[in-house]
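queue> holo job accepted (adenosine-5'-diphosphate)
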Amino acid sequence: MADEEKDTLHLNTSAEPEDDTPDEYAENHEEIAKLKAAQEAAAKANNTAGQVVYVPKEHIGELPLLELHDIYKIYKMGTEEVHANDGITINIYDGEFVAIVGKSGSGKSTLMNIIGALDVPTSGRYLINGQDTSSMSDDELAAIRNKKIGFIFQQYNLLPKDNLLDNVCLPLLYAGIPKQERKERAMRQLERVGLSEKWMQKPAQLSGGQQQRVSIARALAGDPELILADEPTGALDSKTSRQVLGFLKDINADGNTIVMITHDNSIALEAKRIVRISDGKVVYDGTAEDYAKLI
Ligand SMILES: Nc1ncnc2c1ncn2[C@@H]1O[C@H](COP(=O)(O)OP(=O)(O)O)[C@@H](O)[C@H]1O
Ligand SMILES: [Mg+2]
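queue> job finished
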């Protein structure tokens, strides 16, 4: 495959969905105050008094897989500054399924680019497995990305000229795995998403839901520490969306850590934990269960 094709894998080409009406409540400042109060209550319930950062009960005492410490991403627009991320502190632990939810412009893509090691913050520290990425070079970030993160995009980002097996092989090619092992491992992941019999087909021969399942298989192939999904159901109808979310839940049940970005509360509620951002700040971090009571 051509080099320029390979590069497209890690580009965030997903378009922001226009319709974010389910989230409009967040514009209401009273709602934000309520969410903040709920977050404090959740922190207290977790016995993390004096600690601003939410730690899920099951993970108290563990070292986080991802640590975001006071992350700022500031864009200078002429004389004005846009705080796309405005002091975000989150810890995410091995085995979690976290949804990051917020309306359009709240800072989700900016945060996803930082979590995905596609970009570095203006200030603050981001650690993966205790490794600080904040001052890494582009090459070092690329290595982290290829080794530790499996990406799932709204538009699938499959290579159209390659068959499904070669698409799923891609992260293993980056990782320098020998050809035969690549094919075996990729085939196992295609089996997991129920598409091994179609291995020789091209992406365009599949439905949207099937293509997204291939991209889930590809994300899993390199056995990454983290699956990062950016609006994974944004291009799918609601029935197919449920199926894709079902697959994400299954792989989480198998022990994979998932961070999913979405503008849609009903999608976010499928995760175990929800981080709500508004104007670049965390306004809720806690269980999906508690979040459901607030919306
Ligand atoms: N490259 C950029 N240059 C200037 N402003 C940006 C840039 N990227 C994002 N922003 C601004 O930062 C804010 C957050 O954007 P973004 O992270 O894309 O939010 P979301 O993904 O939630 O829609 C918005 O106000 C957006 O206009
Ligand atoms: Mg976005």
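queue> DSSP finds ten helices and ten strands in the chain.
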